[in-house]
C-alpha cells in the first residue's frame, strides 16, 4: 500500500505550483513507481523507462521481470539522472516474492523495506508513526488505518496543506485505488 501527495511545490519557498499531480506511475500490471524530485526530471525519467521497456520487449519478445525492471531503473538513474536528487520507490507484486517495496535513493542504491514514507518529511514522519506498530501480517484494512493516522500526523507537522493524499494498493489482483485521504 502506498500513499502519495498530489502537489507540486517549490521546497525553498513552499509555494504550491500544482495541486492535482499524480506521483505514482503504472509501469506494468502489478508494478508502480512512486517519485519525488524535480517534476521535469521525473517526467523525463518515466518516458525514458517506458522507452527502455518497449525496446526490451521488441528485442526479447517479453517484458522485464519485476526484479529486472528495478535494476534497470537503478542503472538509468545512475547513468542519466545524476544531477538532481530523486527518491524513487518501486512497489510490485508477483507470485514468487509476494508484495515488495524497493527504495532507490539518491546514491542509486536499492533497499528492500517493509514500509517507507515519500518526500522531504514524509519519510521521517511516516517511519516514526509506522515503526512501533508495524507487523508483517497486517491486513489491508489495518494497514490503511495506520496509513490514515500517519498522514494525519504528517499534515499537522508540515507547513504545506495537502488537499489530497492518494492511496494505492499493489497486490495479486493488480493495482487498486483506496479512498483518498483528504486534508
UniProtKB/TrEMBL annotation:
Name of the protein this chain belongs to: Probable proteasome subunit beta type-4
This protein's encoding gene: LOC103517405
GO cellular component, one term: proteasome core complex
Keywords annotated in UniProt: Proteasome
Entries under InterPro entries matching the protein: Ntn_hydrolases_N, Proteasome_sua/b
The UniProt record lists the keyword Ribonucleoprotein: no
Keyword Glycoprotein annotated: no
Native source species: Diaphorina citri
GO term, biological process aspect, one: proteolysis involved in protein catabolic process
Amino acid at each position: 500500500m502506498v500513499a502519495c501527495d498530489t502537489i507540486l511545490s517549490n521546497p525553498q519557498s513552499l509555494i504550491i505550483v500544482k495541486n492535482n499531480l499524480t506521483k505514482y506511475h503504472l509501469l506494468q500490471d502489478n508494478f508502480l513507481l512512486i517519485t519525488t524530485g524535480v517534476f521535469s526530471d521525473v517526467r523525463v525519467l518515466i518516458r525514458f523507462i517506458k522507452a527502455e521497456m518497449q525496446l526490451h520487449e521488441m528485442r526479447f519478445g517479453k517484458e522485464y521481470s519485476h526484479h529486472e525492471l528495478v535494476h534497470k531503473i537503478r542503472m538509468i538513474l545512475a547513468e542519466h539522472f545524476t544531477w538532481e536528487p530523486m527518491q524513487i520507490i518501486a512497489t510490485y507484486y508477483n507470485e514468487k516474492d509476494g508484495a515488495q517495496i524497493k527504495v532507490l535513493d539518491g546514491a542509486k542504491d536499492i533497499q528492500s523495506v517493509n514500509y517507507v514514507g515519500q518526500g522531504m518529511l514524509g519519510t521521517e514522519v511516516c517511519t516514526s508513526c509506522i515503526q512501533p506498530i508495524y507487523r508483517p501480517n497486517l491486513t489491508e484494512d489495518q494497514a490503511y488505518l495506520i496509513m490514515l493516522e500517519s498522514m494525519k500526523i504528517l499534515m499537522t507537522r508540515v507547513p504545506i496543506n495537502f488537499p489530497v493524499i492518494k492511496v494505492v494498493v499493489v497486490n495479486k489482483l493488480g493495482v487498486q485505488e483506496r479512498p483518498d485521504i483528504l486534508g
